Amino acid sequence: MALRAVWLIRHEPGTPLGGTVRFSRRYPTVEKRAKVFNGMTYVPVPEDGPFLRALLFQLRLLDDDKDFIERRDGCSHLNKTSIYGLSVGGEELWPVIAFLRDSMIYASVPLVEQALSPRPPLISISGVSQGLELLLGIQDFLYSSQKNDTDLHTKLSQLPDLLLQACPLGTLLDANLQNSLNSINSVSVTQPQKQPAWKVGAYKGKAQISISITETVKCMQYGKQDIADTWQVAGTVACKCDLEGVMPAVTISLSLPTNGSPLQDIIVHPCVTSLDSAILTSSSIDTMDDSAFSGPYKFPFTPPLESFNLCHYTSQVPVPPILGSYHMKEEGVQLKVTVNFKLHESVRNNFEVCEAHIPFYNRGPITHLEYKASFGQLEVFREKSLLVWIIGQKFPKSMEISLSGTLTFGVKGHNKQPFDHICIGNTAYIKLNFRIADYTLTGCYADQHSVQVFASGKPKISAYRKLISSDYYIWNSKAPAPVTYASLLP
Q1: Residue 482: what pLDDT?
Q2: CA 235 – CA 310 distance, rounded (Å)
Q3: Which residue, 114, 336, 359, 468, shows the most beta carbons closer than 10 Å to its own?
Q4: pLDDT greater at residue 336 or residue 289
């Protein structure tokens, strides 16, 4: 788990090169390891000039680069992450982590401890997450309390010394560069215990631990027998441990109810000291059976000073929280829509937000609307050709709601009307947005009474959890689909 190089590049459109390297750092010892691990597939890290040109080309940030290039712009090369392969000197440098924020490009090349052909899966390259964490830490440091370019220049000049502490010899110890700065600016007079190299500074104050579990559910519902509906839950456990002492130890347990869905694909923070092998081997590609590990999931760790994500996980719950059907039919100049939603009985019926967005982006403005909603309120954005069904904080006792209506549209304006390539006919959709506090779809919760703390003082422990929707779509079907869960159960 190490980095071969780090860059900060200022994107400057209109200049001869299109940008300027404001900071770069290479780690020769890591580069030697890369040459050994990668073998015949090894590609050296280029100098700043060639790297700058290759990166701006890959990100389409060159002023003179307007042509379509198959190896970069083709549909078979769609990039869903911030990981790129750069063509340098006839060879491809991969993986390169890069993203643009506030006219600054943050880039790094992690060490891959194996051959690069065939390409290993990103999840097996631990340096990728560390490289991204360091870049995000640098971004936070540069733009926290920054007022002008002078402040930015000052912080850039501090980076060499800060990285000596935060990332010595290419190994990330602490992504919070402010901690490293505080350590440099302060001299500890008394130190009863040796401070670990990866943890700079020490907390002084009231002991408290905060645990937050956030689950995100994604869903695609088609309402067709020949296309299976899909859904998945992804969770993140975030922690903030304010504990005195040089090396406090904490163990947090995540538990599931009797009928809870097992956690899978668990990825933990580097501060976790040990894990049950059953936790690490639980994967979503494995066949689900009664022997699947269902907890409790114990995470012993020595916490850093800042907030951090203790772990990430996925889960395959048996049914989505809200099942819906959407039917849209054109009759002459009119458009008829029918929408049905049903909340599953196991889901907590207490929303912070619950609303459905029904777009008609490829048409003119809505000129006439007649509708009937069994529940909630309907807001009409006529110029945006958008209906927003505000369901509110609770479903009715029946757990079922419906909406039907007839719409008429005016002449479409070329410049003002929104456009979406897939919002046509059978590819029309509804997007559900909802959030439920104090609830997780898997049933996962942090048992406050089982939290073990080995530090001075008794901390106050607080735990929170919530469920939010992300990319939750109901697609238009050829005929209204009955609201039933029977077809979804295994």
Answers
A1: 45
A2: 11
A3: 359
A4: 336
pTM of the predicted structure, to 2 decimals: 0.59
The CATH code that applies to domain 3-181 is 3.30.450
Phi, psi of 114 (to 5 degrees): -170, 175
3-state SS track over the chain: CCEEEEEEEEECCCCCCCEEEEEEEECHHHHHHHHHHHHHHCCCCCCHHHHHHHHHHHCCCCCCCCCCCHHHHCHHHCCCCCEEEEEECCEEEEEEEEEEECCEEEEEEECCCCCCCCCCCHHHCHHHHHHHHHHHHHHHHHHCCCCCHHHHHHHHHHHHHHHHHHCHHHCCCCCCHHHHHHHHHCCCCCCCCCCCCCCCCCCCCCCEEEEEEEEEEEEEECCECCECCEEEEEEEEEEEEECCCCCCEEEEEEECCCCCCCCEEEEECCCECCCCHHHHCCCCCCCCCCCCCCCCEEEEECCCCCCEEEEEEEECCCCCCEEEEEEEEEECCEEEEEEEEEECCCCCCCCCEEEEEEECCCCCCEEEEEEEECCCEEEEECCCCEEEEECCCCCCCCCEEEEEEEEEECCCCCCCCCCCCCCCHHHCEEEEEEEEECCCCCCCEECHHHCEEECCCCCEEEEEEEEEEEEEEEEEECCCCCCCCHHHCC
Contacting residues for 155 by C-beta, under 8 A, at least 6 apart? 141, 142, 146
pLDDT at 81: 77
Strands 353-359 and 334-343: unpaired
pLDDT digits (tens, 9 = 90+) for 449-469: 889 998 878 899 999 999 999
Identical fold at 208-316+443-466 and 322-438+473-488?
yes
Superfamily the domain 322-438+473-488 falls into: Mu homology domain, subdomain B (2.60.40.1170)
φ, ψ for residue 176, nearest 5 deg: -85, 95
Contact, 77 vs 68, CB < 8 A?
A: no
Please name which of 156, 164, 163, 169 lies closest in space to residue 3, comparing C-alpha atoms: 169
What CA–CA distance (Å, rounded) separates 263 from 405? Answer: 41
Query: What residue segments make up the domains of the chain, in order of their start?
Result: 3-181, 208-316+443-466, 322-438+473-488
Given this model, what pLDDT does residue 99 score?
A: 93
Class of domain 208-316+443-466: mainly beta
CA angle 407, 411, 412 (to 5 degrees): 95
Structural contact between residues 363 and 321, judged by C-beta atoms closer than 8 angstroms: no
Amino acid present at 365: P
Q: 414 vs 158, which has greater pLDDT?
A: 158
Residue-wise pLDDT for 337-378, tens only, equals 999 999 999 999 999 999 999 998 878 888 899 999 999 999
